[in-house]
Design brief:
Distance between the termini: 35 Å
Number of strands: 23
Number of helices: 0
Helix content: under 10%
Shape: globular
């Protein structure tokens, strides 16, 4: 299933879910401008899961070109590709607060005009398992921008990102 925003608006906007799940789809060509977040998908707080899907070719004027998560617990991405998205911060994914687990995820070819080309987090405790973050671009944290919180990584590759360092902030290896 392909859900295409046609460059006209964000593809999915879920302001404050109790819990929301996305599975088995491609979300592409969403676009929001100005101070809006989440060109492809924007979810508030409450927890969200994303399984076996692709988030590609989306753009946001502010944070999370592909995906913006406001916060909460139980946020999970499993078997997800996030590629070719753009934003000011967190070209691929931006997460504001809470907890996040990424398993078997690829972030590639995303761009941020500011920081966090592939992934950006503020006040988040994240776990990465079997994650590849490569070929993303931004001046600071081309692969990852970890502003606060923690990232614990297992079998994770962060390399070959462009312009800024692969990672801004520290990761803990599991």
């Amino acid at each position: 299933t392909i859900v295409d925003g046609g460059g006209l608006d964000r593809v999915f906007h879920v302001p404050n879910p109790d819990r929301v799940s996305f599975s088995g789809m491609t979300v592409r060509n969403g676009s929001v401008s100005g101070s809006q977040d989440g060109g492809g998908i924007s979810v508030g707080i409450g927890g969200a899961s994303f399984t076996d899907m692709a988030i590609v070719g989306n753009s946001a004027g502010r944070d999370g070109g592909g995906l913006h998560i406001g916060g909460g617990t139980g946020n999970q991405l499993t078997g997800v590709t996030v590629a070719g998205n753009t934003a000011a911060t967190g070209g691929g994914i931006d997460v504001n607060t809470g907890f996040l687990d990424l398993t078997n995820v690829t972030l590639s070819g995303n761009t941020a005009t500011g920081s966090g080309g592939g992934y950006s987090q503020q006040n988040v405790n994240a776990t990465f398992t079997n994650v590849t973050i490569t070929a993303n671009s931004s001046a600071t944290g081309a692969g990852i921008l970890r502003a606060n919180g923690s990232i614990a990584a297992r079998n994770t590759l962060v390399a070959g990102n462009l312009l800024g360092a692969d990672c801004s902030g520290t990761l803990t290896s599991l």
